[in-house]
Amino acid sequence: MEYITLMTILFCHCIFVYSFKTLQTHQSIGSVVDVLEKTCGKSFPSKQRILNAYLHYEAMTDHTYTYSCVTCGYHPVTVVMDLHKKGVFSMPVISIEQPPPDYDGKVNVDEFWESVSLEMVSRGLVPSNRQNPFVVRPSYHNWAPWIGPHTSGSNVVLNTEYNKINQPRHPNEAAEFLITEERLTDETLKLKMEAVRSLCKECGIDSKGSRMDLVMRLRKEMQDRSTYDKVFSKVWGASGGWAVVTCPCAVVYGVKFNLRAESPRDFADLLLSMKHLPNVTLYDFARGLATHTNIREPQSLPFSPHEGRLMDATEENIRLASAGHAKVSLPWLATKKPVPDEGGHPLTGSSEHYALYDRFHEANTKDKKDVLRKIELVPELCGWVNSQCAEQLFGGMRKNNHFLNMMTPSSHIFLMRNILHHYNNRRNAKRIDDMKKTLGSGLEIQLNSNGQTVSATAATTTTWTASIPTPSAASGSTTTSIPTPSAAPIPTPSAASGSTTTSIPILSRFQLCNEDCGGMKHMLHTSAGSSVTDLQLNNVLDIQKPKDEVIGVVGTSVLKRLDFLELGLNREVEATIINCCLWLVSQIAGHRGKDVFAVDGYVISTWKQPFTMIPILSLPISCSTATAWTMGIC
Q1: If both were cysteines, with which of 27, 329, 518, 564 could 31 make a disulfide (CB 3.0 to 4.6 Å apart)?
Q2: Is 466 among the domain residues?
Q3: Do 139 and 278 sit in the same domain of this protein?
Q4: CB count in 10 Å sphere of residue 599
Q5: Please, is 213 exposed, middle or buried when counting C-beta atoms within 10 Å of its C-beta (0-12, 13-18, 19+)?
Q6: For 583-633, what is each residue's pLDDT tens digit?
Q7: Closest by Cα among 269, 241, 259 to 156
């Protein structure tokens, strides 16, 4: 009997692990059951029952849901925000429970998500969810976003969706609603003709005429909120999609599952729930976000100076920016202010906060002042920040819509938060792996007090571990022991089998090569801050080891052992090696506000005999004049 029980447990565990892996490839639990039944030639319990069992399993697993990037830390300096419109769940708007009269928009995030987890656990204990006393139903006062505990700094977050329909809009926010109507009108044009006619009939509008005639009638009627909700429900579904906050590394920091149509209010809720407001926020309607947030917080004016613009909105500044002649340097993005501002960000020391457009939407605005919200005006952001990372995230996550959108609201948000958690873990694990390849062997990677990866010697560290069970592919528990000053783990993938423990020392002190490198991204400074030992050098130059083994990665260049074995004699250097060295020099100079151009090492060799090429032809046009050399541009 004990043997049969053990085999049953192992079999169920294997199914859960297989389901976990399958969800990461955008396949539903139902597909998993179909494959297993066809493979084994036997009937399994109902798909809904197995789904309930899997949700029960995930709810009982001690996930941390840290939701932070190991590069950007707990408090990102730059964030990208967007809405996944197609990620919805079926929910009649009329069924949403109204909040009590004293509701102030604040929700206890821990209590809410614990209640959602309790529903998932209880599903495995009742015959039907209709008999489940722990069901969480959507309501304005008991519906919370999720933000990582280190990022929020509190168990209280904001959800003010009820004010979308019960609070008159401020005159300065009129543009916000118009823009939303424009988006909805564009989506309505994509509907089939029969769907547009049906929608007109539902709204009491004449359904005769061309597609454009019908859409224009609907647009006019959308000034009425009830008509707007009908159109929104037809185009996108009953709920309002889910809003995300990501860092430029595409790691998700916060997610909010909207009950009603998107508004800058949703993203303001997320930002104002964070312990430290990011210095730079990228959003497809930056003007509306800055206006709405400043109206909600008139005493502090979160987006300032210049209402979140990079410059004062004077005619001269607008003209210069439109012509491409304006630049606004934000040096604290590269190097923290020596004397931080009062209430400044912990990583930059600056109390300035800007709302800028992402590149895809910056040309859509009709306000000429919005030219002062372009990323290209900031040298420290232009070229490296990926403003489309949220869209790229949605590109993968929309593959889950075919099964997530069919779930109940509570199942939808629970599983979506779980999927994003594992997505973050994979990205962070890959980033740490890339760092280790770049740094080489013998170097440790740790987290500092801000949750960022840094390098330190073992002599200056102490070790503390926190055990976190993760799904494994075989029996036994898999424990990841990760040290951080506040017990937050570096997410790591689950082991394939057995019991695994990974221990990473906590950083008590760390060194940079010098203060000039403090703002460099992706651990570029760590190599310069570490001495190369004879053991490391011998390992690199060992001719007995594979010549194609990757030793490190610098920028886009992958250095293999063969590159180092062919360095040459004294006063010679291999061009790939010199390119990597000069690339690092230009990066360090760039973060110090210096514009340095590194000529390709293979091109430099053509300057000598017998080619004797003219060096000036290898330089950018801006450096090809005597004036440029005199001014010190090159």
Answers
A1: 27
A2: no
A3: yes
A4: 15
A5: middle
A6: 888 777 776 667 778 888 788 878 877 777 777 777 776 665 444 444 344
A7: 269
